[in-house]
Amino acid sequence: MKTNEPKNTNQENEAMEPRPKKHRLRGALISGGAGILVIGAGFGAGLFIKEQQRKKAEAEVVEIDISQLIVDEKEVYEKYKASSSYEKDLTPAEAWNASLYLFSKSESSFSYSVGAGVAMGLVTQNINSCSIHHNGAWFEESLSKSSMVETAWRYYEASDKSATSYSGSGVNPEATSAKWNEGSKQVYADEASFKSVIGFALSTHRSNYNITNYSILDSDAESGSGDGGSKITKNGDGYTIDIEINTKIACEDYRTQMVHTSNLYNKPRFFFSHVSLKTDAKLNPISMRAHEKYHAATSAIISSDVENDITTYYFQDANVAIPALRENVTYANPK
Questions:
Q1: How far is CA 70 from CA 31, 101, 133, in A?
Q2: Helix, strand or coil for residue 215?
């Protein structure tokens, strides 16, 4: 079984981002996508920023081998089962994918993410999201709130892989609840149509990033986040799997997701992203910290740098029911 297969986004990139002169982009999933807070600096500054974005986009376009971004989860799982020493037998990317695949095998799982984003070092935006798998169906919620902007999205996927989405408003200051607009309902016949708009399919949404050996950075010297390179570390009764993400390769589906959830003018440009996954002795995930920074625009003249720090908590066999549209999610450890 192959999952997390990214689509070829050449046409989409050409439509939403400046066309490079000499290179072609041939391609190129924490739970839920963060809403993005963007602050403008005036019309003249905005035009300057747009021009700088165009130049940077042209300079950073890379050739991507899409075949290297496909994860064969069963193959990784078999290698995991045969391993006698995870830190010796598995690469960081393999350990990461094995851990999240173990979580996906639970018939009733729950994860939630809490954190914040800061735009231009000025305004803080609270960010919460969650993911539920229960009785053969899937659900995700994404909420964010600041003094200037809010976002609220819910996604439901049935056992037949049809899906629906809803937008909301009236997010509370803590970004843990919202008022949902039933009239905003969008229906998707299958996972392919849902993914083309949202950037992922709920049943296979392990992570915002396409993480493979090809799409990560190994050495501390390559770490733009300052959190170090990719590695597996034994810690007491468990492990820490650090992944320094090659944002030029691993973020394309995530960038599509961010355009949808935050109504962006175009796809954001990442400066860095680092994830640190803590597991038990069998690589079952416990928590994951995501530290990322990107530049995002909501119009041709309004844009800013945003830095997020978000922690996700994982619970297998949680028996958390998928909420009805008017029901709230409890952002806490399930009892």
A1: 20, 14, 23
A2: helix
Phi, psi of 264, deg, nearest 5: -80, 155
Question: CA-CA distance, 146 to 175, in Å (whole number)?
Answer: 9
Q: What are the structure tokens assigned to 244, written together? A: 């320094």
Helix-helix angle 191-198:252-262, to 10 degrees: 80
Whole-model pTM above 0.85?
no
CA–CA dist 92, 203 (Å, integer)? 23
Q: How many angstroms separate the Cα of 280 from the Cα of each of 248, 302, 328?
A: 31, 44, 30
* Ramachandran region, residue 212 (left: φ > 0; alpha: ψ -120 to 50; beta: rest): beta
Per-residue pLDDT of the chain (335 residues), as tens digits, is 444 444 444 444 444 444 333 332 222 234 444 455 544 433 333 334 444 554 454 445 567 766 677 778 999 999 999 999 999 999 999 999 999 999 999 999 999 999 999 988 888 999 999 999 999 999 999 999 998 889 999 999 999 999 999 999 999 999 999 999 999 999 999 999 999 888 889 998 989 999 999 999 987 777 889 899 999 999 999 999 999 999 998 988 898 889 888 878 899 999 999 999 999 999 999 999 999 999 999 888 888 999 999 999 999 999 999 999 999 999 999 97
